[in-house]
Amino acid sequence: MSQTSPKLGRWSRFCGWLLRRLGWTAVEPMPEESKCIMLGVPHTSIWDFAISYLYYKSLGGSALFMVKKGMFVPPLSWLLRALGAVPVDRKNPTQLIHSIVNQMNTREVFHLALAPEGTRKPIRRWKTGYHLIARAAGVPVYLGYFDWKTKRIGRGLKVELTDDAAADTRRIQEIYEQMHLTAKFPENYLTH
What we know:
alpha/beta, 6 helices, globular
């Protein structure tokens, strides 16, 4: 089942209008699969979330993202859930993976947006949690991107994963490097 809808609602149309008003162009549709992981690179600003949210909503979809469960207290919990947040316990990585996979299995549609950098600060070694979740759930990974120079956003390539998370992550980083993306804060995006 695809997440795209032939007839977009008012909120989706508004999000598309706002995305365009901010100067952004959605260059690719959402993934056709009902369940997948969408990487978001480069991630250097909270604004990356806002642009990604508008992108997904403008296409009639809804991407989910992980937030530590301690943040889920009223009234903030209501806003987080409305935006697509999924509560997770980051203190126990193994349990986190099982929890996300279980949630994927119980929902008809589950597009999980993740930043492999794991932080908005400059780092060279990306986290491999996306890989563990994708392999455990049997879902594809897309190389979603946002380029602050060209103001283009898209789902990117679908990549095939192997059993080697470190090698796959290095390969994915190389693909992103070849895309020559510009981050909101370029000094915080390390490509090599």
